[in-house]
Structure formats: structure tokens, C-alpha cells
Amino acid sequence: MPDGPAISLEGLSKRFADGPLVLDDISLTASNGEIISIVGPSGCGKSTLLRLIAKLIPATSGEIHHSGNNINPAFIFQDATLLPWANVLENIAVPARLKGISKSKRLDTASKWANVVGLNDVLNYYPRQLSGGMKMRVSIARALSQSPNLLLLDEPFGALDAITRNRLNEDLLRLHDESRWTAFFVTHSVTEAVFLSNRIIIMNNNPGSVAAIIENTLPFPRDCRTRESIEFQQRVAEATARLHQVLSS
Ligand SMILES: Nc1ncnc2c1ncn2[C@@H]1O[C@H](COP(=O)(O)OP(=O)(O)O)[C@@H](O)[C@H]1O
Ligand SMILES: [Mg+2]
Hints:
Blueprint: E1 7-15, E2 21-30, E3 35-39, H1 46-53, E4 61-66, E5 73-77, H2 88-92, H3 94-98, H4 103-116, H5 132-144, E6 150-154, H6 162-179, E7 182-186, H7 190-196, E8 199-204, E9 209-215, H8 230-248
Parallel strand pairs: 3-7, 3-8, 5-6, 6-7
Antiparallel strand pairs: 1-2, 1-4, 8-9
Helix pairs in contact: 4-5, 7-8
Bound molecules: adenosine-5'-diphosphate and magnesium ion.
């Protein structure tokens, strides 16, 4: 599979109806298969920006260009939004079901993805029987089973404990290695942003705008040992300082 699309945003602005300007003149580019993190205060328009990038809502002005023929976006949210009456396998297969794919085929694909995200032992469990981390794995499998080339992650791991979050970060990079989707990852954790992404966008409020872009040249592959390295810790400290500097100026 080729790398996910390059995406460029040119002077993107967004206003809902006659409300205030939510996003003002956002310009940035993601290269093919790049992972970009977005950090910024609540209400600065991060979720709105993801929806614009996925072309779910129109921009008020400015343009978005995707390379290649089609974008196939998939979202992952903090709330896994699982159907309570459906088991793990059936939950992963929901998008395929909506597309009218036959039951045997969709459950087959779902079980492959359950395997990839480490859920093989709980295929028949219902959401109430799953931990938060397992629910998030279902959500990831459900998104990836749609073969996205663009992944939009909206604070997906914000409600999880640190160990589970770290594991999912590592798994996400491993999955990215295999499928190379382009990704935008909204997070409040600078540590997570440094671990996952090639670049970190710091956004400002009222209206939402790009305040700074941090290039993160921490080498790949990154795994659990990366967090123990001085280099990683230095980058987290630098990015944190930059965030404070930008948001207090
Ligand atoms: N569908 C909508 N209609 C009107 N206002 C909206 C809509 N979606 C978001 N907004 C407004 O846009 C602003 C940014 O929201 P959002 O993108 O959710 O911010 P963030 O994700 O950074 O917390 C907020 O003031 C919010 O009320
Ligand atoms: Mg949001």
C-alpha cells in the first residue's frame, strides 16, 4: 500500500453560521504518511480542524489539497463509542456492516484486526466486560479495518492510565509502520506528541490559529525504550517549554 496522502491547508478559516471565527488562517502541510500532533487549549478548534481535514465540513475560506485520488479518512475518539449489545467482533465489523459486506466476510476481516490489536482472547466479550484500554483497541481495530489512508485521532488516549496509554502509543507506531496512513493526532500530552509525531503544531485560542510548529527529529523506530533515553526526555522538556512560552505570550 502506498503512503497516505500529502495534505496541504492553505489559509483555512472556519466560522459556524454567524458565530465567531473559530479557526483563522491555518496553513500547514503534512507529507505522505506523516504523523502530526496538535496541541492547544480547549475550544481552540482542534476537533473542528480534524473535521475540516477529513472534508466532513466545509471551510469558510481557504483551501485543502490532498495528493492522490481519494482520501479514505477514519476517526478515533476518546470515547470508543461501542455498541453495548454487540460483542468485540461485531463492534469491529460495524463499518463493514454499514457498507453491506456479507456477514462471513466482515467477521473474517474483523477477526484479523482483533488479532492485530491483541484482542483475540476477548472476541465474544461485550463492551461492559472490557477495560478502557481494550475498548480503545476495539475502536482502533474498527477504524483500521476500513483501510484508511488518513487517520484522525481526537484525544484518543486521554482517559487511559499512563501504562495503557504508552502501550497504545507503541502499538500505534507499529501499525503505522505497516500501513503508513497520514495522521493528525490531537492530544494534551506533550510526551505523547513527542513520542508519536514528526511535527507538533501548537495552536492558540480566539480564534484558533497556528502559534508554532515544532519539528521533532527524534529518530525512528521509537519503542518503549525510547522513553528512557535522555534524548527523548530533552525533547519533551524543550517542547513543554515552547508550549508554555507560546501560550503565555
Ligand atoms: N457545529 C458547531 N456549531 C457551532 N459551533 C461549533 C460547532 N463545532 C464547534 N463549534 C465551536 O467551535 C469552537 C471550537 O470547538 P472545537 O473544535 O470542539 O475545539 P477543541 O476541539 O479545540 O476543544 C468552540 O467554540 C465550539 O463551540
Ligand atoms: Mg476537541
